[in-house]
Amino acid sequence: MTNFKSGLLRLLDERGYIHQLTDAEGLDALASKEIVTGYIGFDATAPSLHVGSLVQIMLLRRLQQSGHKPIVLMGGGTTKVGDPTGKDESRKLLTDAEIDTNIAGIRKVFERFLTFGDGPTDAIVVNNDEWLSKLEYIPFLRDVGRHFTINRMMTFDSVRLRLDREQPLTFLEFNYMILQGYDFLELSRRYGLRLQLGGSDQWGNIVNGIELARRIDGTEVYGVTTPLITNADGSKMGKTAQGAVWLNEEQLSAYDYWQFWRNADDANVGKFLRLFTDLPLEEVERLERLPGAQINEAKIVLATETTAMLHGREAADTAAETARATFEQGGLGDDLPTLSTGEGVSIAHALTAIGFTPSNKEAKRKIAEGAVRLNDEIVSDPGLIVTDGKLSLGKKRHGLLVP
Questions:
Q1: Which residues of the chain have pLDDT under 50?
Q2: Interior/surface letters 204-240, b for 16+ CB within 10 angstroms, e for the rest
């Protein structure tokens, strides 16, 4: 760990959030003497964020916890373009109405993690459509576009990797990094913003924004990126075989969210406790040192604390008790996901409808593997019509079928 002077960088360093800093000494000095306003942008491509965005949400929470001001930037404008970073193909273009609906769904999550208001460190929500949709093309190219060279833009991963794979990159997407850089400049002018935070895949975009603010306004601004958070198998966090781990309860129940964290790999427990809970570091160190099977106690703490932060303490305790009743006592519990079957559905359809598999094809594959049970009996026929009972996929996913 580095001996930072500011509470902000000490907190981020101790809990494992720092991957890259543009000017560690400058940001450390600034954060030691005044309130720093920082932001992270979230494009509105779906009605909910998923757990892959949680490290960024927690980063804004840490910013506020250390006495600074977070800005949640909703990408109402940039969503119309689509970030090519990490994508093999262009995003589907959404209508204004679809983007507005997605923003409304996404905003709800932040109220669980941040304190909003008019105070000096209270969080605010801003939509970059306020300025991006009002830009005039020719003046924008003259005033902003001239600070970006094609030579340099071609070196960024978001562009280079797509071209290396000989996959098309539209001119629309190519402009994304310019618009994100302009966001930094605009927020600096409007709110005195000095810091952009983001994942490691956003490093190039962040650096562009810093350089743009310096060249046009002479403003010293800074950037921090977090390390890439992955599952035990190396896949990007936020996706599972069953699909995305959504943060909104309309997309994923509190119980299933609890189960996601309970099933964390042993090697990730300490890291996840630091990143995604407010537990004191001394307690985190105690939990991650638990030997052998006792590490399951730490996983239960991880699942309960993360669920409490998102869904509330009551929902977290209910999910923990449901899991205990289901797995330890063989009961059904009170909080399992439930599917109404009406007059009956095929068990393959039930698996998909309840959210255990992403498609009927995957459901049939799981049935063929012998991984599906109804009332603890293995099911071999994907066409079996079911009306009620306990539906299980593997040892850890259980749900209730009701008429």
A1: 88, 330-331
A2: bbbbbbbbbbeeeeebebbbbbbeebeeeeeeebbeb
